[in-house]
Every structure is written in structure tokens, then in C-alpha cells.
Amino acid sequence: MLKQIHSADFRKENVPMGTVTKKMLFLHFIKKSVLIGCIFGAIATIGFLLLDNNILEMPSMRNFLMVSTLLIILSVLYSPLTDLYWLNKQEKVLGIRFNEEMEKNNVITLPHVSNQWFIFKGTNRVFAYHRNYIVNLDNKKDGYAEFIGRIEKITVVSSDGKRREISATSNANVISDFKKWVELGEINFEGFPQQEERI
């Protein structure tokens, strides 16, 4: 039996099919971004039609709508694609395969926190870090983002010398929990809600 911590604000979700995979982690972000982009395009089209029925006959207006919709999709995808890039870097640096690691340890639920992995999927971010990839953490600080509210930030110093600032909303406690996980070097955190799972 392995004890795993789950922050009180972590959203527990059952993965419907098999173990956690990279495809499962990121596919829903792609679907969401396309949906948001299509909704924006539809609303903008309806709005323009209400102003002028012939406005879509103008090539420049059609191009504007297509480009705007594409930019919306890309802006929603930016954060999760960046997270995927860093997960791929960890695989390369450590010589591991994420999917094989998840299958080997029978990881079927999120969030997942163990001696080796810290994995959390938020609204538009995926935090997936292997302990051996992290050398140090620098500069934990609080900030504020428009439309989001208070956020926590921390800089991850990796074993290949790269530095990456990651952030999350303060009420999710992800950054604080991540910092404790790295610094304590264990997963049995005093005061944390705990849950035992066979993995």
C-alpha cells in the first residue's frame, strides 16, 4: 500500500478507461479549445449578420472571422501545449516513457501524487513532474491575474539546467502542495488529507 496525498482543493476525477496517458491528459484541452473557438466564431458571425446581411460577402470580413477563430483556439491551447512540451522534455532527459510509467504503477485517477510523480490537471493546465527532473525551486511568490484573481508562482530548476516559471490560482493550493512535495522529499505531509490507494 502506498500513501498518496490529495490537497483538499484537488479535483478528484475517475479516469474512465485504463491508466492515465498523455493523450488522456491533453485531448480534452484540444476539444475545449476548438469548441470555444467555434462558439466565438458563431457569435461573431451572428453579430455581424445582425449589423448587415451582406457583410460576410466581403472577403476581408470572412478572413477576419477565420483568423480570429483560429487565434482563440491557439490561445486556449497555448498553456496545455507548453505543459506537454515540458513533459516530453522530462521523458527525454530521464530516459523514461510517461505512459509506461503510469501503466507500471497502475495510475488510474487524478490528481496523482507519489514518491516519484506529482500530476494535477486543472482547468487549463497540466502539472506533471517527475522528482528526478527537479533540482531546485526558486522564488515562490504571489501575483494577480485579470479575470482569474490571486495566483501563486514558482520557478522550477530542472536537471538539464532549464528554468521554468509555473503558476496556478491560489485557491487551488497546487503550487504550495508542489513546493512541499519537492522540499520534504516525501508524501506523508502532516496536516494534509490522506488517502490510501493500491497502485
Task: Describe what this molecule looks like in 3D.
The chain is an alpha+beta fold and about 200 residues long. It has one domain (about 10-185). About 40% of the residues lie in helices and about 25% in strands. The chain has 4 helices and 10 strands, in the order ββαααβββββββαβ. It has helices at about 20-50, 60-95, 100-105, 175-185, and strands spanning about 1-5, 15, 110, 110-115, 115-120, 125-130, 135-145, 150-160, 165-170, 195. A hairpin with a 3-residue loop joins strand 7 and strand 8. The chain is elongated and about 65 Å long.
* Average of pLDDT: 76
Q: Class by helix and strand content?
A: alpha+beta
Reported for the largest beta sheet, the result is: 3 strands, antiparallel
Query: How many helices?
Result: 4
Kindly estimate the percentage of residues that lie in beta strands according to DSSP.
25-35%
Q: Topology as H/E string?
A: EEHHHEEEEEEEHE
Task: Give the overall shape.
Answer: elongated
Give the number of domains: 1
**What share of residues is helical?**
40-55%
Could you list the spans in which at least 5 consecutive residues all have pLDDT below 50?
A: 1-17, 188-199
User: Total number of β-strand segments?
Assistant: 10
Strand order in space, largest sheet:
4-5-6
Computed over alpha carbons, the radius of gyration is: 20 Å
